[in-house]
TrEMBL record:
<dbReference type="Pfam" id="PF00149">
    <property type="entry name" value="Metallophos"/>
</dbReference>
<keyword id="KW-0378">Hydrolase</keyword>
<feature type="domain" description="Calcineurin-like phosphoesterase">
    <location>
        <begin position="59"/>
        <end position="278"/>
    </location>
</feature>
<dbReference type="InterPro" id="IPR029052">
    <property type="entry name" value="Metallo-depent_PP-like"/>
</dbReference>
<dbReference type="Pfam" id="PF02872">
    <property type="entry name" value="5_nucleotid_C"/>
</dbReference>
<keyword id="KW-0732">Signal</keyword>
<comment type="similarity">
    <text>Belongs to the 5'-nucleotidase family.</text>
</comment>
<protein>
    <submittedName>
        <fullName>Bifunctional metallophosphatase/5'-nucleotidase</fullName>
    </submittedName>
</protein>
<keyword id="KW-0547">Nucleotide-binding</keyword>
<dbReference type="InterPro" id="IPR006179">
    <property type="entry name" value="5_nucleotidase/apyrase"/>
</dbReference>
<dbReference type="InterPro" id="IPR036907">
    <property type="entry name" value="5'-Nucleotdase_C_sf"/>
</dbReference>
<feature type="domain" description="5'-Nucleotidase C-terminal">
    <location>
        <begin position="419"/>
        <end position="571"/>
    </location>
</feature>
<dbReference type="InterPro" id="IPR008334">
    <property type="entry name" value="5'-Nucleotdase_C"/>
</dbReference>
<dbReference type="InterPro" id="IPR004843">
    <property type="entry name" value="Calcineurin-like_PHP"/>
</dbReference>
């Protein structure tokens, strides 16, 4: 027996369609969230099967970060996504439950937000939660995005979920009691499997502008809460297997999955994670907060030659961790072989992890039919025409710097050919639209906003449909107006421009810091003029010349508009401003979300025009290297490599580890032949199709891809 991992590993990931013991797995209609009390939809121990066996395989399966993907469809771009959707997960589940009818199935959060899911927030039970129940999920862990709405919304859906709802670190402020139970025990033929849940502690920061979203709740430190629950479970239930269901990235906020795994590797056997939108299979050793890849095929299959056997002799030394990507792209699986020893105790013989890819999987037609009305309503809403677009909102029309197209699709999903949206590196009406809305509504003179989607654009003559707002601004952020000193405004801007790597001689593109996600790059507009010099180190790049028509003053106070996420996640923690500096908050407004403000503006004006006064102003910022006389611009004019790149003869290496936003961590460089590779689909006679050229630059054709 291992040091602390009490007994054996046996996590059944199969629950036939209704595979629960009716006496022990049922939902009480009178279960309600009551202040100061723990919501428990299930008893602490749920029996999956009660047969007399001496050996078995415990199967666990998990999804995470579904973000409204009931179907494999992206309503923001009104297109099918063949690598997503619970309807594809359903097909895999039917196969897996044939292999193991005792399969234990859970979802690790960020389930009900995104992809037009907010259309159904007023329903008694959200369709995404109904869909989990349609597929007989045993357990649900709320993620941070479950708290994007009024707390009554998450309360209601937690109450109405028939399975277990768990999270170890959400507590009532009034008495420190758990909001939800921190764990669930599953009994599979006498083998006890404990599942420990976790929600990010940063929810109050991310929702700082809307405290009603987590009213009465506090979120404890992830490691402290998880450790306490694990110890409690061991003391009271002596489980044979302990599994984490943690909505947490590997290195999030300094207390990520790596830290928890390293600290508790002698107690956890498997950790199934979410939040990062990554697809990986790794192992973490006790005391070492770093992961080691033990997969082949880009995180889909465990490589047993790397991982070896995981059993009673070594289980206290490490823990395996896995995450199933986003949107239903994969189903994470853990198969744990156990058998009884001479004393009747369950012992782990081995454990094997895999991510089952949905890319080539057909949607389950019965489930498609069951939720056709939800899909139809979402499509109809996305296609509602609000007016016409007058003029191209990105210089030159297309979003991509090299090809002037809007986007292409490769094996990592939708992205730009050059991975650079023009509106991120040059002032454009596309981002000005968001910025103007922010200033008009808040009364600020300066605004900060990110361009979240690389597929966003507005082209001359197109119908402006409701989906265009969702694609341009895909989050449900509220709008905040703050008073900020010039010195702190400069700190904020320098923080934002850490998104870029330092320019190197011969660069033909900019490149991006792999440690910075694209949604953490803000542009600044309004009564401010500035330049950015990428030859300088981070912290010294931004030169602000004018603010409010006067020379920039570090000691002056300025009025700044920004979104609620940036306010609570970076602004207040970094000391750029405090809550007392807020002069505007849209949370109580009739239209609280920035995205919906854009929709309302376009509706009111029966469309949007490039000639609108607020969009037709003199450009207020530039990156010096991309100015007409800048280094990158000059390099392009003198480089045959750039011409070949724009013709799609050459491809750029992307950074696949930045899984939410694949981008380039090393710029295309005319002096460095290792910074690009040949597009074998290119044909000199021009006969290659755009689709073939795009796929020729897919991740799987990159010689840097070693998987």
């Amino acid at each position: 027996m291992s040091k602390f991992k009490i007994l054996s590993l046996s996590l059944a990931v199969s629950i036939a369609l209704f595979g629960c013991n009716d006496d022990e797995h049922h939902h009480h209609d009178d279960n309600k969230v009551i202040d100061g009390q723990t919501l428990t939809n299930t008893p602490e121990v749920v029996t999956k099967s009660d047969k007399k066996v001496s050996k078995q395989t415990i199967t666990l399966a998990a999804t995470s970060d579904l973000h409204g993907r009931l179907r494999g469809y992206d309503y923001a771009i009104d297109a099918e996504d063949k690598h997503a959707g619970l309807t594809r997960i359903a097909t895999i589940l039917e196969q897996q439950r044939t292999l193991d009818p005792n399969l234990i199935l859970f979802d690790i959060g960020d389930t009900v937000q995104g992809n037009s899911a907010q259309l159904f927030n007023d329903m008694e039970t959200h369709p995404m939660i109904e869909a989990l129940q349609y597929l007989d999920y045993d357990l649900w862990v709320p993620g941070n995005h479950e708290f994007n709405f009024d707390r009554s919304f998450v309360d209601r859906n937690l109450e109405n979920f028939d399975g277990a709802v768990i999270s170890s670190n959400i507590k009532w402020e009034s008495n420190n009691e758990n909001y939800l139970r921190g764990f669930q025990i599953f009994n599979v033929n006498g083998c006890k499997v404990a599942v420990i849940g976790l929600t990010p502690s940063y929810v109050p920061n991310w929702e700082a502008s809307a405290p009603e979203h987590f009213k009465g709740l506090k979120f404890e430190d992830e490691l402290v809460a998880t450790s306490a629950v694990v110890d409690d479970v061991i003391a009271r239930h002596q489980p044979d297997i302990i599994v984490g269901a943690l909505h947490l990235g590997r290195t999030d906020q300094g207390v990520g999955v790596y830290n928890i795994a390293a600290e508790l590797a002698d107690k956890f056997d498997v950790i199934m994670a979410g939040h990062e939108h990554a697809t990986y299979i790794e192992t973490v050793k006790k005391g070492d907060p770093n992961g080691t890849d033990i997969s082949v095929k880009s995180g889909l299959v465990e490589d047993k030659a790397k991982s070896g056997t995981y059993n009673e002799s070594n289980r206290h030394e490490s823990v395996k961790i896995i995450e199933p990507g986003k949107w239903g792209s994969d189903l994470a699986m853990a198969k744990i072989n156990v058998e009884k020893d001479a004393s009747g105790k369950w012992k782990i013989i081995d454990t094997t992890l895999s991510n089952l890819d949905t890319k080539e999987i057909a949607e389950d037609q019965n489930m498609v039919d069951e939720y056709q009305d939800i899909h139809d309503r979402s499509v109809d809403d996305a296609r509602e025409t609000l007016g016409k677009v007058d003029g191209d909102f990105v210089n030159g029309g297309g979003a991509d710097e090299a090809t002037n197209d809007d986007y292409f699709v490769d094996d990592l999903g939708t992205r730009l050919y050059s991975t650079i949206h023009k509106a991120k590196v040059q002032d454009s009406a596309l981002i000005d639209l968001i910025q103007f809305i922010e200033r008009e509504k808040s009364g600020a003179t300066i605004s900060a906003a990110a361009l979240f989607s690389d597929t966003s654009n507005l082209r001359d003559g197109q119908d402006y449909q409701r989906k265009d707002s969702a694609n341009l601004y895909k989050y449900d952020n509220a709008l905040i107006g703050v008073n900020i000193t010039g010195a702190n405004l400069k700190k904020y801007m320098e923080w934002s421009y850490n998104y870029f790597n330092t320019y190197k001689e011969g660069d033909l593109t900019v490149s991006f810091n792999p440690d910075v996600q694209a949604y953490n790059y803000d542009l600044f507009d309004g009564a401010i003029e500035y330049t950015v010099d990428l030859t300088k180190p981070t912290g010294e790049r931004v030169d602000i010349t004018l603010v409010d028509g006067k020379a920039f003053d570090p000691n002056a106070k300025y009025k700044l508009a920004l979104n609620s996420y940036r306010f609570g996640t970076q602004g207040v923690p970094n000391g750029w401003f405090t809550k007392d500096d807020v002069f505007y908050d849209s949370s109580d407004a009739t239209v609280p979300a920035i995205r919906d403000m854009i929709t309302a503006y376009v509706t009111e004006h029966n469309g949007i025009s490039i000639n609108d006064e607020h969009l037709n102003t003199t450009h207020n910022w530039q990156i010096k290297q991309l100015a007409p006389n800048g280094e990158i611009t000059q390099n392009r004019a003198n480089s045959d490599i750039w011409k070949q790149f724009t013709n799609q003869q050459l491809c750029i290496h992307i950074n696949p580890d930045n899984v939410k936003y694949p981008s380039i961590s090393h710029a295309l460089n005319m002096n460095d032949p290792t910074s690009y590779f040949e597009n074998k689909a290119y044909k000199a006679d021009g006969s290659a199709t755009k689709e073939a050229l795009n796929l020729g630059c897919s991740w799987t054709n990159d010689p840097n891809n070693k998987s």
